[in-house]
Amino acid sequence: MKGRTITVAVLTLSDKGSRGERDDLSGPAIGRMLEGIGAEVRFSEILPDEKTMIKEKLIEYAGRVDLIITTGGTGLSPRDVTPDATLEVIEREVPGMAEAMRTEGMKKTSRSMLSRAVAGVRGQALIVNLPGSPRAVAENLSVILDVIPHAVEKIKGGMEECAR
């Protein structure tokens, strides 16, 4: 967004991470990548894979930041509930972002098709689910990084044309 810092909340969803049994490498990686588009991480938390708690935090942060990035809990394991929580709080889905990440991921591993990550809008905040591993975070976020400022601008009511 021209002349405005994009404010960010990063939520790492990990039972082990929330108990201090695993270091969070994905959250800091997200912060470093977002600096390249002029974004600033204002909030960063590690939560267990608990749908109610995830929903509460998404709702809370949607009123405080422009962008919420989640990392973890996007797969098929019974405790992977991040996309489910996200779908319950967003008002509009942005399927192209998740589709683009899966499509690009398929070039590296067929397991990318197992991702249930979603992206959407709540209020004036963009919410994007990323996988949990630092490598997958970097691969997925790099696919959508350049469109995030434009997406946030449009969500905020920006009048800039989408055509290039």
Explain the overall architecture:
- It contains 7 helices and 6 strands.
- It has 164 residues and is of the alpha/beta class.
- It has a single domain, classed as MoaB/Mog-like domain (Molybdenum Cofactor Biosythetic Enzyme, Chain A, 3-Layer(aba) Sandwich), CATH 3.40.980.
- Strands 2-1-3-6-5-4 form a 6-stranded mixed beta sheet, sandwiched between helices.
- Helix 2 (26-35) packs parallel to helix 6 and helix 5 crosses helix 6 (134-144).
- The chain is globular.
- The model has no long low-confidence stretch (mean pLDDT 94).
Overall average residue pLDDT: 94
Query: What is the C-level CATH assignment?
Result: Alpha Beta
Tell me what the CATH architecture is. Answer: 3-Layer(aba) Sandwich
Sheet-strand content, in percent, reads 15-25%
Helix-strand blueprint:
Elements (H helix, E strand, L loop, with lengths): L5 E8 L1 H4 L7 H10 L3 E9 L3 H12 L4 E5 L10 H8 L2 E2 L1 H12 L12 E4 L2 E6 L3 H11 L3 H8 L9
Helix pairs in contact: 2-6, 3-4, 5-6
